[in-house]
Write a structure and sequence with these properties.
The chain is of the alpha+beta class. It has 14 helices and 17 strands. Bound molecules: adenosine monophosphate (AMP).
Length: about 400
């Protein structure tokens, strides 16, 4: 079976690694000649909107998938007229537009933060009058890792106008600023026959809008509700593949932030930490194969490496740690790798100090201090530290 991947970054690379182990072959399409996944298969370098490029890409493919939700819709639709595209184009359409996404959540009775659509500076002023500050202004499309977002803390007209300029005066939504206790995500997967599997809940820590740490949470009281929300989305979209739902835990209530119709950074620990990784299960799903088991018998976590890689000798000294380098050059704010950590069930405390050690190598000392200190309110304090850092 030959799988076509729209995009050729690290997610496509890890999908192809999983696919290769299942005997699949891969063709990547990306406009970037330096794409890090390119050496793992056939590589078509060209624009997503060029018909000749798309024609070359789809030649001999059995199925097409994608590694990021901002792949141009027209390219995915063009492919879908010729080859099955999984996850379905409908999922891309919703995930690409924050307003459509919020409305889909509401239609499915999945609670969301209060929000308003904003298409002009006047509408921004009205929305701030109505919802107050603090609030977050987010472009409807093309935002990721905190890009296309401005936090509004002061309703002064000059500052609103600055914020409107800062997001390029693009169609946007204004969202209440959520004082969450924890950020959570749930990675779910659905097969062609409609069977589903869910990974344990993830707790996530961000800094500057970028994910820094994920810890798999076992036995969380909110797990069933998170799973139920993800299940509604999967069924509604007639989804095939891996999907991730990002949630805010606000005093035990879950609010949906967004979903990703793809494998997700918060699911990277599943490579070493789950019986079947999110990448393998995505490839199983899109190829029409049965899903593998998602259980995790032991503690697992993931530390992101942003901007540069730490010394691999140091990482190797941490028991249960695996360094994944994406083969990308270093640049501030760029994801260049991650460290997966796995431990034993009876050594939770020692495991968390190893996670803290990996965080320090990754330059995340503030989050490391809080995670290591543990305690019932560690999550909230880690979130605070992440904001202050
Ligand atoms: P997003 O691109 O929407 O996932 O936002 C990136 C990060 O910004 C999230 O993971 C949160 O840490 C933070 N964030 C986004 N929206 C809100 C909000 N409404 N209230 C508080 N923090 C937010």
């Amino acid at each position: 079976m030959r799988v076509g991947l729209l995009g050729a970054g690290q997610l496509a690379g890890m999908l192809a690694d999983a696919g290769a182990a299942l005997g699949m072959k891969h063709t990547f399409l990306s406009p970037d000649p330096d794409s890090c996944a390119a050496p793992r298969g056939d590589f078509v370098c060209g624009a997503f909107d060029d018909v000749q490029t798309l024609t070359r890409f789809t030649e001999g493919l059995d199925v097409v998938t994608y590694e990021f939700e901002n792949v141009p819709l027209a390219a995915a639709e063009w492919c879908a007229d010729r080859v099955p595209v999984r996850p379905p184009v409908a999922a891309l359409r919703v995930a690409q537009d924050r307003l459509a996404e919020k409305r889909a959540f509401q239609r499915l009775d999945i609670p969301v933060p209060a929000y308003a659509a904003v298409d002009s500076l006047d509408e921004l002023r009205e929305a701030v009058d109505r919802h107050g500050v603090p609030a977050v202004l987010k472009t409807r499309t093309l935002g990721y890792d905190g890009r296309g977002q401005v936090v509004l803390r002061d309703p002064a007209p000059g500052l609103l106008s600055e914020a409107w300029d800062a997001i390029g005066r693009a169609p946007a939504i204004l969202e209440e600023f959520v004082s969450f206790n924890r950020e959570l995500s749930i990675v779910a997967v659905r097969a062609v026959d409609g069977s589903e599997a869910f990974y344990p809940l993830n707790q996530n820590w961000h800094r500057e809008g970028i994910l820094r740490l994920t810890v798999g949470v076992l036995g969380d009281p909110l797990r069933d509700l998170a799973e139920e929300y993800a299940r509604r989305l999967l069924a509604d979209l007639d989804y095939v593949g891996t999907l991730t739902l990002e949630l805010f835990d606000v005093a035990g209530r879950l609010l949906a932030n967004e979903f990703a119709p793809r494998v997700h950074n918060s699911g990277h620990w599943t490579i070493e930490g789950a019986a079947t990784s999110q990448f393998e299960n995505h490839m199983r799903a899109i190829s029409g194969s049965p899903l593998g088991p998602t259980g995790r018998p032991r503690p697992a976590a993931m530390v992101n490496l942003i901007g540069s890689l730490p010394d691999s000798e140091l990482v190797r000294q941490i028991p249960g740690a695996t360094l994944h380098a994406y083969g990308k050059s270093g640049r501030p704010g760029r994801k260049v790798g991650h460290i997966t950590l796995v431990g034993e069930e009876n050594e939770r405390e020692r495991f968390m100090s190893r996670v803290a050690c990996a965080l320090r190598y990754a330059g995340e000392a503030a989050i490391a201090d809080v995670v290591e200190s543990g305690g019932a309110d560690a999550s909230a304090r880690a979130a605070d530290a992440a904001c202050e850092a």
